[in-house]
Amino acid sequence: MSGIPTITIPTIADIERIAALSDPVIRNLQITQCYHELALTLAERTGRCANWCTFATWASKQAGQTIRKEDLARTLGNILGSEAAAVQAGRELAAAVQRIAVKYRIDEILKFVWKVLDPPAAFAHSSEAVARGNLKVFAEIGREFALFYAACLEDTSYDAEKIARFCEGLRPGEPPDGQGYLREAFRHYYQALFEADEKKRLELLLLANIRVGFHEQTRLQPEINEALGAPVISPDTFIRNLLKTLHPEWGWLNEVIWLILRLLGRLTELDTAVRVYFESAQREAQFIVTEALMMLEMPHYNRLRLGDDLAASFPPILQQLENPELLALLRLIDPTPDSPSESGAEYWGDLPDRLHFIADMFRCYQASPELLDPPFNDEQVTVLKEGRLPAGRL
């Protein structure tokens, strides 16, 4: 196919080397670039359209913002002040605390509350979960793409026995333990290599992309839920740490006094205020993290908020689908299979909502050649492949 730059095809050794990197920031940057190279490799055979690695490039680039805590830092200040309910709950908590620590003003206590709640630690927890998920998917699926390219990409005619042997190397069964969806996906990718009809080829690629996405998102469920689970401190620990902060003069007696206050029932009002406050703070912290996780920036600053319905339309060639396997899969995961309406995922931790959005997003952008644009400029690629952090917007 013309118009696609010649690149070096990533190998198994490349995948393993990148996956072994200990620095999550540099590893993410190299994962993102490797996904781009894997995407271009397949596009040389199937044309300037999207495969799963194409979407993975931009998802990994977005994940990098969370891993570097850039998107979280932009909204960190909102956790105690953006919602009226959280503000009111915070003041009620401070009033309850003041009855135990009478020497402090309400505004001083609110500062102590912020310090003890420690939202940066919660967001660091989310960053670590996203980094683990980024590595988990790349080490498995990136590796399988490199294996597929090494085994099958140079074939000039369809070899049923070869693709069957390749697929037998993947574990049977459904995710998260089985790789049955990957088996089917690579069978479709292989068929697409030899399909001359553009519509049939695009439908095969879309079917393969959704199958890989189904496997990927099921595997990522623990990491996504963990990333959305801020804050990480428990209410009971919060009260004990708050008392230590308010009364450093108690020293080692802090635990004893805390226990006495609890036995005397002096903490009942505080317990109630903390519970109400934590419900508000938890919702707001999860909103901030969710907003960060549910934003995907595509090429040319096309930002998709994953909680909103897709504004894009299905390309004309994919408006009426014909592939029976594709139609059957969409009936399983897409409640509105002929429209991107109602595609927004209200909560990214909900796997069915996530799959619905992803299926529609893949279909809307399947034929978009701009997704093959490089995620970094040439200078940034040189630097990141040397294991250093590039300058400029990443």
Give an overview in words.
This protein is mainly alpha-helical and 394 residues long. The protein is 63% helix and 2% strand. The chain is built from 16 helices and 2 strands. A two-stranded antiparallel sheet has the order 1-2. A hairpin with a 3-residue loop joins strand 1 (295-298) and strand 2. The longest helix is centred in the middle third of the chain and has 34 residues, at 119-152. The two termini are 29 Å apart. The relative contact order is 0.14. Residues 1-5 and 76-83 have low confidence and may be disordered.
Gross morphology is: elongated
Distance between the termini: 29 Å
* Number of separate helices: 16
Assess the beta-strand content as a share of residues. under 5%
Structural class: mainly alpha
Report strand order across the widest sheet: 1-2
The biggest sheet amounts to: 2 strands, antiparallel
Q: How much helical structure, as a percent, in the residues?
A: 55-70%
> Helix and strand succession?
HHHHHHHHHHHHHEEHHH
Q: Low-confidence spans: pLDDT under 50, at least 5 residues? A: 1-5, 76-83
Mean model confidence by pLDDT: 85
The rounded Rg comes to: 25 Å
Counted beta strands: 2
